[in-house]
From TrEMBL:
Annotated organism of origin: Cutaneotrichosporon cavernicola
PROSITE patterns given in the database record: PIPLC_X_DOMAIN
Gene Ontology biological process terms in this record: lipid metabolic process
InterPro entries found in the cross-reference section: PI-PLC_domain, PLC-like_Pdiesterase_TIM-brl, PLipase_C_PInositol-sp_X_dom
Gene3D superfamilies: Phosphatidylinositol (PI) phosphodiesterase
Full protein name: Phosphatidylinositol-specific phospholipase C X domain-containing protein
GO molecular function terms listed in the Swiss-Prot or TrEMBL record: phosphoric diester hydrolase activity
Domain Phosphatidylinositol-specific phospholipase C X: 126-263
Highest taxon of the lineage: Eukaryota
C-alpha cells in the first residue's frame, strides 16, 4: 500500500506518519505517534502501517520554489471528501497548492509550485499565445446582486483579479445620461464599466507583466445606437492600456495591457480604427457540443451550453465542459483559443449558485457536487498525467470549489506550471 506523489516544482524530502488521538486530556495538546516512512517510486510506502485509531495523517516535508514547508495528508478522509473525489490539503510552503486525489486503490497527492495568484503570468514565456495559457475567467463578472435569479459572483472585481482571474465578462446598457451601467439581463448590477476599467488599470500598474482580457457586451434590448461609441471613447481615455488588435496576441505583445474582446459590431459613429479586438465572428445560442468560429484567421472554440433543464443536469454540464477541455490538452501550441463557460442556469430548477456550488450539503454526503468541484477533479487528474488545458474557463462563483480556500483562479493559474 502506498500514497502516490505528483509533485510539480516541488521536492518531497521526507514523510512521517502521525496519529493524533481523538480523546486528548482536557487542556493538553493531543498526543501523537510519529513514524518515519520511506519514499520510493514517486510515493510514500505505507505497508508497515497496520490499523490505527485516532486521526491518522501523513506529513510530507517539502521544498518549493519560494521556500520550505509541510503538507498534511489525512488517511481517513470524510465520506463527503471521497464522494467529491479530491480535497485541498493544508500546506505551509508559500505559493504551493496541495490536493489529494482519491482513488479506488491508492490516493495521490498533487503539489504544484507557482508564483501565486498576483503574478502567475509573469514567469510564463513571452512567445506563448494568450490561447496557450490556462486561465480562469468569470462569467457575468459584475453580477453580484439578484439572489438566485441573476447573481453569479460573490467577489468584487479587485478581489477577482487578486485571486487569479484574468478574463472578465462585463455586460452593460447605455443609460440616458451616457453612463455604461452594468447589467445581467434585465437586472441592474449597480456599477459601471468605468469601475472595472479602473480596477484593471490599477492592477496592471501594480503587476506590469500580467495580462487581462475583458469581454464587453451590450445587454439588449434596447439596442442603443451610441453604445459602441461610448465603449470605445471610454477605453481610449486609458491611453494604450487596452489593446484592440483583432488577432489572439502573444504574451510579449500584451504584458501590462488588457486585450479587448467585443461581442458587438462597429457603428458608423464608432469606427474602432485600431480594430474591434478579439472578436468571434459568430456566437450561436446554448450549443451543447460547443462551436467553432474564426478570429482573423485564428480558430476559436467556445463551449457555452447553459440551458439545463434542472440541477439534475449538473453532471452532464460538467462532462460537456471537461470533454471540451480535453481537446486542448493535446492541441499544438499557438493553434487556437478556447473558452469554456462552466456557468449554466434555468430558473427555477437550475440556478447559477446550484450549478456552480452544488445542491444540498454534498460535503456531508447529502446532495450533489457542483460543476466547480467536478472541474477541479478533472484538472487534478490531468496534472497527475502531466497535462493541462490550454483554455479559459469562465466560471460562476469561481472562488467556491467545495474544499479549501483556493478557488479556480488559483488552481488554473497553477496549472501552467504542471510538469510533463
Amino acid at each position: 500500500m502506498s500514497l502516490k506523489l505528483s509533485p510539480h516544482g516541488v521536492q518531497v524530502t521526507s514523510a512521517a506518519f502521525l496519529s493524533v488521538s481523538e480523546t486528548p486530556n482536557e487542556g493538553s495538546p493531543p498526543p501523537a505517534a510519529l513514524i518515519n516512512l520511506p519514499l520510493a517510486n514517486n510515493g510514500v510506502d505505507l505497508s508497515q502501517l497496520g490499523p490505527r485509531g485516532g486521526s491518522p495523517q501523513v506529513q510530507l516535508t517539502i521544498s518549493g520554489g519560494s521556500g520550505n514547508g509541510s503538507v498534511t495528508v489525512p488517511l481517513a478522509a470524510p465520506p463527503g471528501d471521497r464522494s467529491r473525489g479530491w480535497a485541498q490539503l493544508e500546506c505551509t510552503a508559500p505559493n504551493v497548492l496541495a490536493y489529494v486525489l482519491f482513488g479506488e486503490r491508492e490516493d495521490t497527492v498533487v503539489m504544484i509550485a507557482y508564483p501565486g495568484t498576483l503574478e502567475f503570468m509573469s514567469a510564463l514565456p513571452d512567445d506563448w499565445s494568450f490561447g496557450d495559457v490556462s486561465l480562469c475567467g468569470t462569467h457575468e463578472s459584475s453580477a453580484q446582486t439578484g439572489y438566485f435569479i441573476s447573481k453569479c459572483q460573490d467577489r468584487d472585481v479587485v478581489t477577482q483579479l487578486n485571486e487569479g482571474v484574468r478574463v472578465l465578462d462585463v455586460r452593460m446598457r447605455l443609460s440616458a445620461t451616457g453612463e455604461l451601467e452594468t447589467y445581467h439581463g434585465i437586472r441592474p448590477q449597480y456599477s459601471t464599466l468605468k469601475v472595472y476599467l479602473d480596477a484593471i488599470d490599477a492592477f496592471l500598474s501594480a503587476h506590469p507583466r500580467e495580462t487581462i482580457m475583458i469581454s464587453l457586451k451590450e445587454e439588449t434590448p434596447p439596442d442603443a445606437p451610441d453604445f459602441s461609441k461610448a465603449v470605445y471613447d471610454l477605453l481610449k481615455t486609458y491611453g494604450d492600456r487596452f489593446v484592440f488588435t483583432e488577432h489572439v496576441p502573444r504574451l510579449s505583445e500584451v504584458r501590462g495591457k488588457a486585450q479587448v474582446m467585443t461581442r458587438f459590431g462597429r457603428k458608423d459613429n464608432a469606427p474602432w480604427s485600431e480594430g474591434l479586438g478579439f472578436h468571434p465572428n459568430r456566437w450561436p445560442d446554448s450549443v451543447k457540443e460547443g462551436f467553432e468560429c474564426d478570429c482573423n484567421g485564428t480558430p476559436v472554440r467556445i463551449s457555452d451550453w447553459y440551458g439545463l433543464d434542472s440541477a439534475m443536469d449538473i453532471p452532464l454540464k460538467a462532462e460537456a465542459v471537461t470533454q471540451f477541455l480535453e481537446h486542448t490538452t493535446c492541441c499544438p501550441p499557438g493553434s487556437q483559443i478556447s473558452l469554456a463557460f462552466s456557468s449554466a442556469a434555468k430558473f427555477p430548477l437550475a440556478t447559477p449558485q446550484w450549478v456552480a456550488k452544488g445542491v444540498g450539503a454534498p460535503t456531508f454526503g447529502l446532495g450533489m457536487h457542483g460543476v466547480n468541484a467536478r472541474i477541479v477533479h478533472w484538472l487534478l487528474q490531468q496534472a497527475v498525467q502531466g497535462k493541462r488545458p490550454r483554455a479559459v474557463v469562465m466560471a460562476d462563483y469561481y472562488d467556491y470549489t467545495g474544499s479549501g480556500e483556493a478557488g479556480l483562479g488559483a488552481l488554473l493559474g497553477a496549472m501552467n506550471y504542471v510538469q510533463q
